[in-house]
Amino acid sequence: MKLENILIVDPVDGEYTGSINIEDEEIVDIRRLECTPKAIVMPGFVDPHTHGQRGIDTMSAKPRDFEVWAELNFQQGVTSFLPTTVSSSFEALRKVLFNLQELPLSIVGVHLEGPFINPEKKGAQNPDFIYPFDERLESVLKNPVKLITAAPEIDGFKKLLELSESRKIKVSIGHSSATYKAMKTAFESGADRITHFPNALVPIHHRELGGMGSGLYLDFKLELIADGVHLAPEFVDLVYRIKGPDKIMLVTDSISAAGLEDGIYDLGGLDVEVRDGKCRLARDGSIAGSSLLFNNAVKNFKKFTGCNLMELSKVSSYNSIRELGIEKLGRIARGYFANLVVLDESLTVLKTFFKGIEVYKRF
Amino acid sequence: MKLENILIVDPVDGEYTGSINIEDEEIVDIRRLECTPKAIVMPGFVDPHTHGQRGIDTMSAKPRDFEVWAELNFQQGVTSFLPTTVSSSFEALRKVLFNLQELPLSIVGVHLEGPFINPEKKGAQNPDFIYPFDERLESVLKNPVKLITAAPEIDGFKKLLELSESRKIKVSIGHSSATYKAMKTAFESGADRITHFPNALVPIHHRELGGMGSGLYLDFKLELIADGVHLAPEFVDLVYRIKGPDKIMLVTDSISAAGLEDGIYDLGGLDVEVRDGKCRLARDGSIAGSSLLFNNAVKNFKKFTGCNLMELSKVSSYNSIRELGIEKLGRIARGYFANLVVLDESLTVLKTFFKGIEVYKRF
């Protein structure tokens, strides 16, 4: 199969016009050709942090639901994602892992958000299921977990980090009261990633950088929820200017309400009220995940920052893929899997290809 | 007179070795010559925000005290500075201006810090003397005032800005509760400078940039107190990385206790307790100015940021001079006044020249 007269956007080679030749699952050839492109083609999007969509929730999904979710995500151009848990009983977490022993389609692993976080910064996490880490709890640190959000100040964090590393699980700092000193120590120990920055972190103060300042100052990679609700557009732009395109990873942090109408939804046993697309805990009005869909995250980030398409391919795909250590994804280059998203000028998804197969077409 | 075998540091031409020829008040010739320099020569330092030093206080100083202060400042390499007032009665402010009708030596004007500020962000300013602006108060907006710190949200700010502009007085935003929107409006109206950033401003939040975020995000020029007390060293470095060397101006914000022993001092009628060099209001422990001397500000900034000497000459001299619109100062170039500071490798002041005359020598 061949995609012709397109603008190819690669995070390494940049933007150029030409054609892509796909055989079986892979890109076998790319030709550079002067032409007026009919569409933009980027590496398929990657969402490392998503709790659900259109009524599906990681915590309650059955194996078939995960397949449906993956199919829904193709509409968003997402060709790799990590269903994300919330702080829950170990039984509930193990059930999720059991249901995902066979990863369907574009699901590349599970992101455990908690339970090893700081209850002071619980956000929309259920405090009944937040724990320090000890080795007896290691049964959740196993395949298909690829990413875990934890707070460096909890008891047992060092052990958690060691175990995770040995099992090729990436640790992301989040829901944490860590000060600059603790953030620096964690960074130097290898926890070089921050979950939904700077939500549920200590704000920056000019005499104590806190989690927010540490994320900006040290060489952390940052998840950003570019919905215009969690973060002001100018904050997203400021972070972009400070960190540059190589240290940002777009995430939706979407909950089951995403793509549905306003109403009351469940998140880890807590009621979430969705009004005008904004998700808040009924309990106290805390922001509780988003109703953001990935294609909008991409459009928003471009709008908020004015970045170019090559940079956009980094924050929407390449950076997350590299960090998770996944081979043959995240680029448009010979030998890579043909996970591709075809977009119009306004960055609306027209088509999605997953391993060379057209899995979504807009009209 | 000739300075030979020196490392010349100019904010525009950079660093090079050679010699400087001085006749009368001016630099008449510069020669580039390969040599092993015996000292570093930079443009004389500029302190646009200083309330006092060694027992001298702007509010109580007599004309002769200002001369002594200028001489003391030569020891710090400071060849231009603005004695800075605090919020006070108009009578008291007018007295300061009267005493400085004839500007002695290196005093280039007066900085009025208040009284047109926001009492919510008074910091160490006396709330009894904080006012909104109306035209009846314009009698303080006159020579030798060169700079005024005001809050954009006070009544009459627009008028204050217009009047100041017509009188060539620079307006600096400070002691303000302004949100992003108000900061942006003020910036666009021409108030493009911030006093002792980000002290006495609204902290940054990811959904509302406040004064701190606005200072980082918009193209404001920022005063920084690099004493390691007002601002953590890593905060100074973060600001430097974000803003670059062209938007930062070092200030001491020093009070009369600077250069003296710990004890109780006065600032605008309020008691300030100085302990271990840290100045705090006896009333509530608020930070109340600094005991920083300019040469230490320069050393600290270099240490905190690792900037090069050319960049250091910008933040310690050139940026402030340019902004105040003063001619023939801030550079080491032909035709400029020979206001120079001679430093050793550790950036300790060895000699100071003011208009070609050696006004300080260390040993």
From TrEMBL, chains A, B:
<dbReference type="InterPro" id="IPR006680">
    <property type="entry name" value="Amidohydro-rel"/>
</dbReference>
<keyword id="KW-0378">Hydrolase</keyword>
<feature type="binding site">
    <location>
        <position position="230"/>
    </location>
    <ligand>
        <name>substrate</name>
    </ligand>
</feature>
<dbReference type="InterPro" id="IPR011059">
    <property type="entry name" value="Metal-dep_hydrolase_composite"/>
</dbReference>
<feature type="active site" description="Proton donor/acceptor">
    <location>
        <position position="253"/>
    </location>
</feature>
<feature type="domain" description="Amidohydrolase-related">
    <location>
        <begin position="40"/>
        <end position="356"/>
    </location>
</feature>
<dbReference type="Pfam" id="PF01979">
    <property type="entry name" value="Amidohydro_1"/>
</dbReference>
<dbReference type="GO" id="GO:0046872">
    <property type="term" value="F:metal ion binding"/>
</dbReference>
<keyword id="KW-0479">Metal-binding</keyword>
<feature type="binding site">
    <location>
        <position position="124"/>
    </location>
    <ligand>
        <name>substrate</name>
    </ligand>
</feature>
<comment type="similarity">
    <text>Belongs to the metallo-dependent hydrolases superfamily. NagA family.</text>
</comment>
<feature type="binding site">
    <location>
        <begin position="287"/>
        <end position="289"/>
    </location>
    <ligand>
        <name>substrate</name>
    </ligand>
</feature>
<feature type="binding site">
    <location>
        <position position="207"/>
    </location>
    <ligand>
        <name>substrate</name>
    </ligand>
</feature>
<feature type="binding site">
    <location>
        <position position="175"/>
    </location>
    <ligand>
        <name>Zn(2+)</name>
    </ligand>
</feature>
<dbReference type="GO" id="GO:0008448">
    <property type="term" value="F:N-acetylglucosamine-6-phosphate deacetylase activity"/>
</dbReference>
<dbReference type="InterPro" id="IPR032466">
    <property type="entry name" value="Metal_Hydrolase"/>
</dbReference>
<feature type="binding site">
    <location>
        <position position="196"/>
    </location>
    <ligand>
        <name>Zn(2+)</name>
    </ligand>
</feature>
<feature type="binding site">
    <location>
        <position position="113"/>
    </location>
    <ligand>
        <name>Zn(2+)</name>
    </ligand>
</feature>
<keyword id="KW-0119">Carbohydrate metabolism</keyword>
<feature type="binding site">
    <location>
        <begin position="199"/>
        <end position="200"/>
    </location>
    <ligand>
        <name>substrate</name>
    </ligand>
</feature>
<dbReference type="GO" id="GO:0006046">
    <property type="term" value="P:N-acetylglucosamine catabolic process"/>
</dbReference>
<protein>
    <submittedName>
        <fullName>N-acetylglucosamine-6-phosphate deacetylase</fullName>
    </submittedName>
</protein>
<dbReference type="InterPro" id="IPR003764">
    <property type="entry name" value="GlcNAc_6-P_deAcase"/>
</dbReference>
